Amino acid sequence: MHFEVKYNPSYALAIVSLGANESVVAEGGAMVSMSSNVAIQTSMGGGGGAGGLLKALKRTALGGESFFLNTYTSQGGPGEVTFAPTLPGDIAHIQMTGPGLVIQRTSYLAGSPGVAIDTQFGGLKSFLGGEGLFMLKASGQGDILVTSFGAIHLMELDGPYIVDSGHIVAFDETLSFENKRVGSWKSTFLSGEGLVTLFNGKGRLWIQSRNPKAFGQLVGGKLPPRQQ
Amino acid sequence: MQFAIKYRPSYSLLGVKLDPNEQILVEAGSMVSMAADMQVDTKLSASGGMVKAFAGAVARKFLGGETMFVNVYTAGQSGGQILIAPALNGDIIHFPMQGGRLLIQASSFLAAHPGIEVKLQFGGLKTFLGGEGLFLLAASGAGDLFVNAYGGIREIDLDGSFIVDTGHVVAFEETLQFNVKKVGGWKSTMLSGEGLVTEFTGKGKLYIQTRNVGALVGWLTPMLPG
In degrees rounded to 5, what are phi and psi of residue A190? Predict the structure, then answer.
Protein backbone atom coordinates (compact mmCIF):
# COMPACT_ATOMS: atom_id res chain seq x y z
CA MET A 1 0.00 0.00 0.00
CA HIS A 2 1.29 3.43 -0.92
CA PHE A 3 -0.09 6.79 0.16
CA GLU A 4 0.41 10.05 -1.68
CA VAL A 5 -1.12 13.43 -0.84
CA LYS A 6 -1.49 15.96 -3.66
CA TYR A 7 -2.95 19.49 -3.98
CA ASN A 8 -2.16 20.33 -0.38
CA PRO A 9 -2.64 22.29 1.70
CA SER A 10 -5.79 23.90 0.29
CA TYR A 11 -7.42 21.07 -1.61
CA ALA A 12 -5.58 17.97 -0.51
CA LEU A 13 -6.41 14.66 -2.19
CA ALA A 14 -5.14 11.31 -0.86
CA ILE A 15 -4.16 8.78 -3.52
CA VAL A 16 -3.93 5.24 -2.16
CA SER A 17 -2.29 2.59 -4.38
CA LEU A 18 -3.29 -0.94 -3.41
CA GLY A 19 -1.60 -4.21 -4.27
CA ALA A 20 -3.68 -7.21 -5.29
CA ASN A 21 -6.23 -8.07 -2.56
CA GLU A 22 -4.97 -5.27 -0.35
CA SER A 23 -7.50 -3.12 1.54
CA VAL A 24 -7.80 0.41 2.85
CA VAL A 25 -10.43 1.60 5.33
CA ALA A 26 -12.03 5.04 5.01
CA GLU A 27 -14.76 7.19 6.46
CA GLY A 28 -18.10 6.87 4.67
CA GLY A 29 -18.47 9.50 1.96
CA ALA A 30 -14.76 10.22 1.57
CA MET A 31 -14.17 8.27 -1.65
CA VAL A 32 -13.55 10.41 -4.73
CA SER A 33 -12.64 7.80 -7.31
CA MET A 34 -11.53 4.18 -7.55
CA SER A 35 -10.44 1.53 -10.00
CA SER A 36 -13.27 -0.66 -11.25
CA ASN A 37 -11.80 -3.78 -9.61
CA VAL A 38 -12.12 -2.27 -6.13
CA ALA A 39 -14.96 -3.63 -4.00
CA ILE A 40 -16.57 -1.80 -1.04
CA GLN A 41 -17.81 -3.27 2.19
CA THR A 42 -19.54 -1.05 4.77
CA SER A 43 -19.35 -1.54 8.52
CA MET A 44 -20.11 0.49 11.60
CA GLY A 45 -17.26 2.05 13.42
CA GLY A 46 -16.41 0.32 16.69
CA GLY A 47 -16.60 -3.26 15.50
CA GLY A 48 -18.45 -5.26 12.92
CA GLY A 49 -21.62 -7.31 13.04
CA ALA A 50 -24.72 -6.83 15.18
CA GLY A 51 -22.66 -5.60 18.14
CA GLY A 52 -21.26 -2.80 15.97
CA LEU A 53 -24.72 -1.82 14.80
CA LEU A 54 -25.97 -1.69 18.39
CA LYS A 55 -23.03 0.49 19.38
CA ALA A 56 -23.66 2.82 16.44
CA LEU A 57 -27.32 3.18 17.40
CA LYS A 58 -26.41 3.79 21.03
CA ARG A 59 -24.03 6.49 19.94
CA THR A 60 -26.77 8.17 17.90
CA ALA A 61 -29.11 8.01 20.91
CA LEU A 62 -26.45 9.61 23.09
CA GLY A 63 -26.16 12.55 20.73
CA GLY A 64 -23.09 11.37 18.93
CA GLU A 65 -22.81 10.85 15.26
CA SER A 66 -23.09 7.48 13.66
CA PHE A 67 -19.83 6.51 12.15
CA PHE A 68 -19.62 4.26 9.15
CA LEU A 69 -16.40 2.84 7.79
CA ASN A 70 -15.94 1.52 4.29
CA THR A 71 -13.32 -1.08 3.44
CA TYR A 72 -12.03 -0.86 -0.13
CA THR A 73 -10.36 -4.02 -1.45
CA SER A 74 -8.53 -4.27 -4.73
CA GLN A 75 -9.60 -7.60 -6.26
CA GLY A 76 -7.50 -9.73 -8.56
CA GLY A 77 -4.79 -7.11 -9.17
CA PRO A 78 -3.55 -3.70 -8.11
CA GLY A 79 -5.94 -0.79 -7.81
CA GLU A 80 -6.19 2.85 -6.77
CA VAL A 81 -8.63 4.67 -4.49
CA THR A 82 -8.62 8.42 -3.87
CA PHE A 83 -10.15 10.16 -0.85
CA ALA A 84 -10.98 13.76 0.02
CA PRO A 85 -12.60 15.43 3.02
CA THR A 86 -15.61 17.74 2.72
CA LEU A 87 -13.93 21.01 3.71
CA PRO A 88 -10.98 22.65 1.96
CA GLY A 89 -7.76 21.83 3.78
CA ASP A 90 -4.83 19.53 4.22
CA ILE A 91 -4.32 15.80 4.78
CA ALA A 92 -1.55 14.48 7.05
CA HIS A 93 -0.18 10.96 6.67
CA ILE A 94 0.78 9.55 10.07
CA GLN A 95 2.71 6.30 10.56
CA MET A 96 1.43 4.53 13.64
CA THR A 97 4.18 2.59 15.35
CA GLY A 98 3.63 2.75 19.07
CA PRO A 99 1.13 4.73 21.15
CA GLY A 100 -2.43 5.24 20.00
CA LEU A 101 -3.72 8.39 18.40
CA VAL A 102 -6.82 10.35 19.46
CA ILE A 103 -8.56 11.85 16.43
CA GLN A 104 -11.33 14.42 16.24
CA ARG A 105 -14.12 12.53 14.47
CA THR A 106 -14.44 14.76 11.40
CA SER A 107 -10.67 14.71 10.94
CA TYR A 108 -10.50 10.95 10.40
CA LEU A 109 -10.17 10.17 6.69
CA ALA A 110 -8.66 6.73 6.11
CA GLY A 111 -6.19 4.15 7.34
CA SER A 112 -4.71 0.75 6.75
CA PRO A 113 -6.71 -2.25 8.05
CA GLY A 114 -4.16 -2.93 10.80
CA VAL A 115 -5.27 0.26 12.55
CA ALA A 116 -8.31 -0.24 14.78
CA ILE A 117 -10.74 2.66 15.21
CA ASP A 118 -12.46 2.83 18.59
CA THR A 119 -15.51 5.07 18.65
CA GLN A 120 -16.26 4.34 22.29
CA PHE A 121 -13.11 5.92 23.52
CA GLY A 122 -13.26 8.04 26.63
CA GLY A 123 -17.02 7.99 27.00
CA LEU A 124 -18.53 11.41 27.62
CA LYS A 125 -15.11 12.87 28.21
CA SER A 126 -14.58 12.56 24.50
CA PHE A 127 -17.21 15.23 23.83
CA LEU A 128 -14.51 17.81 24.00
CA GLY A 129 -14.95 21.43 24.83
CA GLY A 130 -18.73 21.46 24.85
CA GLU A 131 -18.53 21.83 21.10
CA GLY A 132 -19.93 18.38 20.45
CA LEU A 133 -16.57 17.17 19.27
CA PHE A 134 -16.56 13.44 19.16
CA MET A 135 -13.19 11.81 19.51
CA LEU A 136 -12.02 8.51 18.04
CA LYS A 137 -9.06 6.46 19.11
CA ALA A 138 -6.82 4.78 16.60
CA SER A 139 -4.49 2.03 17.74
CA GLY A 140 -2.29 -0.63 16.19
CA GLN A 141 0.36 -0.54 13.51
CA GLY A 142 0.01 1.05 10.11
CA ASP A 143 -0.91 4.22 8.28
CA ILE A 144 -3.57 6.76 9.06
CA LEU A 145 -4.72 9.86 7.20
CA VAL A 146 -6.20 12.81 9.09
CA THR A 147 -7.69 15.94 7.55
CA SER A 148 -8.01 19.56 8.55
CA PHE A 149 -10.03 22.67 7.76
CA GLY A 150 -7.16 24.89 6.67
CA ALA A 151 -3.53 24.01 7.22
CA ILE A 152 -2.29 21.34 9.63
CA HIS A 153 0.17 22.61 12.23
CA LEU A 154 2.16 19.98 14.12
CA MET A 155 3.29 20.77 17.66
CA GLU A 156 5.54 18.71 19.92
CA LEU A 157 4.14 19.28 23.40
CA ASP A 158 6.06 18.89 26.62
CA GLY A 159 4.04 20.35 29.48
CA PRO A 160 0.71 22.16 29.72
CA TYR A 161 -0.76 23.81 26.62
CA ILE A 162 -4.21 25.25 25.79
CA VAL A 163 -6.05 24.75 22.49
CA ASP A 164 -9.44 25.97 21.28
CA SER A 165 -11.16 22.61 20.87
CA GLY A 166 -12.51 23.55 17.44
CA HIS A 167 -8.92 23.56 16.19
CA ILE A 168 -7.98 20.03 17.33
CA VAL A 169 -7.19 17.50 14.61
CA ALA A 170 -5.43 14.69 16.50
CA PHE A 171 -2.99 14.01 19.32
CA ASP A 172 -0.89 11.20 20.77
CA GLU A 173 -2.70 9.36 23.55
CA THR A 174 0.32 9.97 25.73
CA LEU A 175 -1.12 13.47 26.26
CA SER A 176 -3.72 13.96 28.95
CA PHE A 177 -6.55 16.39 28.22
CA GLU A 178 -9.35 18.15 30.07
CA ASN A 179 -11.94 20.78 29.34
CA LYS A 180 -11.34 24.15 30.87
CA ARG A 181 -13.03 27.52 30.72
CA VAL A 182 -11.12 30.52 29.44
CA GLY A 183 -10.20 33.13 32.05
CA SER A 184 -12.96 34.37 34.35
CA TRP A 185 -16.67 33.61 33.86
CA LYS A 186 -16.96 36.91 32.02
CA SER A 187 -14.42 35.70 29.50
CA THR A 188 -16.10 32.30 29.29
CA PHE A 189 -19.33 33.92 28.17
CA LEU A 190 -18.07 36.91 26.22
CA SER A 191 -14.66 35.99 24.86
CA GLY A 192 -16.03 33.90 22.02
CA GLU A 193 -13.67 31.16 23.15
CA GLY A 194 -15.97 29.30 25.52
CA LEU A 195 -14.34 26.12 26.68
CA VAL A 196 -10.87 25.18 25.66
CA THR A 197 -8.86 22.00 26.06
CA LEU A 198 -5.89 21.87 28.39
CA PHE A 199 -3.30 19.30 27.30
CA ASN A 200 -0.52 18.03 29.48
CA GLY A 201 2.35 15.60 29.11
CA LYS A 202 4.65 14.81 26.23
CA GLY A 203 3.46 14.01 22.73
CA ARG A 204 2.47 15.28 19.31
CA LEU A 205 -0.55 17.50 18.69
CA TRP A 206 -1.91 18.33 15.24
CA ILE A 207 -4.07 21.44 15.04
CA GLN A 208 -5.94 23.03 12.13
CA SER A 209 -5.57 26.69 11.24
CA ARG A 210 -9.33 27.18 10.81
CA ASN A 211 -12.30 26.28 13.01
CA PRO A 212 -15.19 24.73 11.03
CA LYS A 213 -17.80 25.86 13.56
CA ALA A 214 -16.54 29.45 13.60
CA PHE A 215 -16.70 29.55 9.80
CA GLY A 216 -20.16 27.96 9.79
CA GLN A 217 -21.48 30.43 12.35
CA LEU A 218 -20.00 33.42 10.54
CA VAL A 219 -21.51 32.48 7.18
CA GLY A 220 -24.62 30.81 8.65
CA GLY A 221 -25.41 33.92 10.67
CA LYS A 222 -25.75 35.89 7.45
CA LEU A 223 -28.07 33.41 5.75
CA PRO A 224 -31.85 33.89 5.81
CA PRO A 225 -33.82 31.74 8.31
CA ARG A 226 -34.66 28.27 7.03
CA GLN A 227 -38.27 28.05 5.81
CA GLN A 228 -40.37 25.61 7.80
CA MET B 1 6.63 40.79 20.66
CA GLN B 2 7.88 38.57 17.85
CA PHE B 3 5.57 37.14 15.23
CA ALA B 4 5.41 34.82 12.23
CA ILE B 5 2.58 34.21 9.75
CA LYS B 6 2.45 30.68 8.32
CA TYR B 7 0.27 28.91 5.74
CA ARG B 8 -0.35 32.04 3.70
CA PRO B 9 -2.43 33.06 1.90
CA SER B 10 -5.29 30.55 2.11
CA TYR B 11 -5.13 29.41 5.72
CA SER B 12 -2.81 31.90 7.35
CA LEU B 13 -2.00 31.33 11.00
CA LEU B 14 -0.48 34.07 13.14
CA GLY B 15 1.99 33.01 15.82
CA VAL B 16 2.97 35.67 18.38
CA LYS B 17 5.67 35.20 20.99
CA LEU B 18 5.12 37.53 23.93
CA ASP B 19 7.74 38.69 26.40
CA PRO B 20 7.08 38.17 30.13
CA ASN B 21 3.83 39.96 31.11
CA GLU B 22 3.46 41.39 27.61
CA GLN B 23 -0.09 41.77 26.24
CA ILE B 24 -1.88 41.42 22.94
CA LEU B 25 -5.45 42.37 21.96
CA VAL B 26 -7.18 39.66 19.93
CA GLU B 27 -10.53 39.63 18.17
CA ALA B 28 -13.00 37.48 20.15
CA GLY B 29 -13.04 33.84 19.11
CA SER B 30 -9.75 34.02 17.20
CA MET B 31 -7.41 32.28 19.67
CA VAL B 32 -6.29 28.90 18.31
CA SER B 33 -3.93 27.80 21.07
CA MET B 34 -1.69 29.30 23.74
CA ALA B 35 0.70 28.70 26.60
CA ALA B 36 -1.18 27.34 29.60
CA ASP B 37 -0.14 30.24 31.87
CA MET B 38 -1.52 32.93 29.56
CA GLN B 39 -4.12 35.15 31.31
CA VAL B 40 -7.27 36.23 29.48
CA ASP B 41 -9.50 39.22 30.05
CA THR B 42 -12.46 40.23 27.92
CA LYS B 43 -13.45 43.79 27.21
CA LEU B 44 -15.72 45.73 24.92
CA SER B 45 -14.12 46.17 21.55
CA ALA B 46 -14.38 49.93 21.19
CA SER B 47 -12.22 51.90 23.54
CA GLY B 48 -13.05 55.24 25.13
CA GLY B 49 -15.56 55.96 27.90
CA MET B 50 -17.77 53.08 29.00
CA VAL B 51 -20.95 54.45 27.43
CA LYS B 52 -19.23 55.31 24.20
CA ALA B 53 -17.46 51.97 24.23
CA PHE B 54 -20.71 50.11 24.70
CA ALA B 55 -22.47 52.10 21.99
CA GLY B 56 -19.56 51.42 19.69
CA ALA B 57 -19.49 47.73 20.49
CA VAL B 58 -23.24 47.37 19.96
CA ALA B 59 -23.07 49.29 16.71
CA ARG B 60 -20.24 47.09 15.57
CA LYS B 61 -22.23 43.99 16.42
CA PHE B 62 -25.36 45.01 14.58
CA LEU B 63 -23.97 46.96 11.70
CA GLY B 64 -21.70 44.36 10.25
CA GLY B 65 -18.81 43.79 12.64
CA GLU B 66 -18.24 40.31 13.88
CA THR B 67 -18.25 40.59 17.64
CA MET B 68 -18.68 43.10 20.44
CA PHE B 69 -15.66 41.99 22.41
CA VAL B 70 -11.92 41.71 22.21
CA ASN B 71 -9.76 39.58 24.46
CA VAL B 72 -6.60 40.80 26.12
CA TYR B 73 -4.05 38.01 26.54
CA THR B 74 -1.23 38.52 29.02
CA ALA B 75 1.83 36.28 28.98
CA GLY B 76 3.14 34.71 32.19
CA GLN B 77 6.43 35.32 33.97
CA SER B 78 8.50 33.54 31.35
CA GLY B 79 6.59 34.88 28.33
CA GLY B 80 4.56 32.69 26.05
CA GLN B 81 3.28 31.97 22.59
CA ILE B 82 -0.24 32.39 21.21
CA LEU B 83 -1.57 31.21 17.84
CA ILE B 84 -4.32 33.29 16.24
CA ALA B 85 -6.53 32.70 13.19
CA PRO B 86 -9.64 34.37 11.78
CA ALA B 87 -12.85 32.45 10.99
CA LEU B 88 -12.61 32.95 7.24
CA ASN B 89 -10.16 31.44 4.80
CA GLY B 90 -7.61 34.01 3.79
CA ASP B 91 -4.50 35.99 4.40
CA ILE B 92 -3.20 37.94 7.40
CA ILE B 93 -1.02 41.02 7.02
CA HIS B 94 1.09 42.91 9.50
CA PHE B 95 1.16 46.69 9.85
CA PRO B 96 4.04 48.16 11.87
CA MET B 97 2.10 51.21 13.03
CA GLN B 98 4.18 54.30 13.80
CA GLY B 99 1.60 56.99 14.42
CA GLY B 100 -0.88 57.77 11.68
CA ARG B 101 -4.22 56.07 11.37
CA LEU B 102 -5.40 53.07 9.45
CA LEU B 103 -9.09 52.56 8.75
CA ILE B 104 -10.07 48.90 8.87
CA GLN B 105 -13.23 47.19 7.70
CA ALA B 106 -14.61 45.95 11.05
CA SER B 107 -14.49 42.19 10.45
CA SER B 108 -10.88 42.43 9.22
CA PHE B 109 -9.43 43.40 12.61
CA LEU B 110 -7.51 40.42 14.04
CA ALA B 111 -5.00 41.47 16.69
CA ALA B 112 -2.95 44.40 17.97
CA HIS B 113 -0.27 45.44 20.41
CA PRO B 114 -1.89 47.23 23.38
CA GLY B 115 -0.16 50.41 22.26
CA ILE B 116 -2.61 50.53 19.37
CA GLU B 117 -5.95 52.16 20.02
CA VAL B 118 -8.78 50.61 18.03
CA LYS B 119 -12.04 52.46 18.01
CA LEU B 120 -15.23 52.76 16.07
CA GLN B 121 -15.05 55.22 13.22
CA PHE B 122 -18.41 56.92 13.73
CA GLY B 123 -18.22 58.66 10.37
CA GLY B 124 -18.18 55.17 8.95
CA LEU B 125 -21.84 54.75 9.81
CA LYS B 126 -22.80 57.30 7.18
CA THR B 127 -21.49 54.89 4.62
CA PHE B 128 -24.33 52.47 5.29
CA LEU B 129 -27.00 52.27 2.64
CA GLY B 130 -29.78 49.72 2.97
CA GLY B 131 -27.94 47.57 5.52
CA GLU B 132 -24.97 47.17 3.27
CA GLY B 133 -21.87 49.24 3.36
CA LEU B 134 -18.56 49.96 4.89
CA PHE B 135 -18.28 49.67 8.62
CA LEU B 136 -14.94 50.92 9.86
CA LEU B 137 -12.64 50.79 12.83
CA ALA B 138 -9.83 53.31 13.21
CA ALA B 139 -6.48 52.06 14.48
CA SER B 140 -3.93 54.57 15.73
CA GLY B 141 -0.79 54.60 17.83
CA ALA B 142 2.43 52.67 17.59
CA GLY B 143 3.00 48.92 17.55
CA ASP B 144 2.14 45.79 15.64
CA LEU B 145 -1.30 45.51 14.08
CA PHE B 146 -2.67 42.43 12.29
CA VAL B 147 -5.48 42.49 9.77
CA ASN B 148 -7.16 39.53 8.08
CA ALA B 149 -8.96 39.12 4.78
CA TYR B 150 -11.29 36.72 2.98
CA GLY B 151 -8.98 35.46 0.23
CA GLY B 152 -5.74 37.13 -0.72
CA ILE B 153 -4.81 40.72 0.07
CA ARG B 154 -3.82 43.13 -2.71
CA GLU B 155 -1.97 46.32 -1.80
CA ILE B 156 -2.65 49.33 -3.98
CA ASP B 157 -0.51 52.50 -3.93
CA LEU B 158 -3.17 54.98 -4.82
CA ASP B 159 -2.59 58.44 -6.25
CA GLY B 160 -5.79 59.72 -7.80
CA SER B 161 -9.11 57.97 -7.68
CA PHE B 162 -10.12 54.34 -7.62
CA ILE B 163 -13.34 52.36 -7.22
CA VAL B 164 -13.63 49.19 -5.13
CA ASP B 165 -16.62 46.93 -4.57
CA THR B 166 -17.42 47.68 -0.91
CA GLY B 167 -17.38 44.01 0.05
CA HIS B 168 -13.73 43.82 -1.02
CA VAL B 169 -12.38 46.65 1.14
CA VAL B 170 -9.96 45.53 3.89
CA ALA B 171 -8.16 48.67 5.07
CA PHE B 172 -6.79 52.02 3.92
CA GLU B 173 -4.67 54.90 5.13
CA GLU B 174 -6.47 57.88 6.55
CA THR B 175 -4.94 60.12 3.88
CA LEU B 176 -7.48 58.67 1.46
CA GLN B 177 -10.93 60.17 1.14
CA PHE B 178 -13.76 57.72 0.59
CA ASN B 179 -17.33 57.80 -0.52
CA VAL B 180 -19.71 54.83 -0.62
CA LYS B 181 -22.05 55.05 -3.58
CA LYS B 182 -24.18 53.11 -5.99
CA VAL B 183 -22.53 51.95 -9.14
CA GLY B 184 -23.68 53.77 -12.29
CA GLY B 185 -27.40 54.53 -12.61
CA TRP B 186 -30.20 52.66 -10.84
CA LYS B 187 -30.29 50.17 -13.68
CA SER B 188 -26.67 49.25 -13.06
CA THR B 189 -27.21 49.18 -9.29
CA MET B 190 -30.00 46.66 -9.69
CA LEU B 191 -28.62 44.60 -12.54
CA SER B 192 -24.85 44.85 -12.50
CA GLY B 193 -24.44 42.59 -9.50
CA GLU B 194 -22.12 45.17 -7.99
CA GLY B 195 -24.42 46.88 -5.47
CA LEU B 196 -22.38 49.38 -3.51
CA VAL B 197 -18.92 50.54 -4.40
CA THR B 198 -16.50 52.77 -2.54
CA GLU B 199 -14.68 55.49 -4.40
CA PHE B 200 -11.29 56.39 -2.93
CA THR B 201 -9.44 59.58 -3.81
CA GLY B 202 -6.11 61.03 -2.76
CA LYS B 203 -2.70 59.56 -2.08
CA GLY B 204 -2.18 56.59 0.21
CA LYS B 205 -2.29 52.84 0.53
CA LEU B 206 -5.39 50.78 0.03
CA TYR B 207 -5.75 47.04 0.79
CA ILE B 208 -8.42 44.94 -0.86
CA GLN B 209 -9.42 41.29 -0.49
CA THR B 210 -9.82 38.92 -3.41
CA ARG B 211 -13.08 37.41 -2.13
CA ASN B 212 -16.31 38.92 -0.79
CA VAL B 213 -18.29 37.41 2.13
CA GLY B 214 -21.52 39.03 0.93
CA ALA B 215 -21.07 37.33 -2.43
CA LEU B 216 -20.54 33.93 -0.75
CA VAL B 217 -23.72 34.43 1.28
CA GLY B 218 -25.57 35.57 -1.84
CA TRP B 219 -24.43 32.42 -3.64
CA LEU B 220 -25.38 30.08 -0.79
CA THR B 221 -28.79 31.59 0.01
CA PRO B 222 -30.71 30.28 -3.03
CA MET B 223 -29.16 26.83 -2.44
CA LEU B 224 -30.87 26.46 0.94
CA PRO B 225 -33.82 24.07 1.00
CA GLY B 226 -37.08 26.01 0.82
Answer: -110, -15
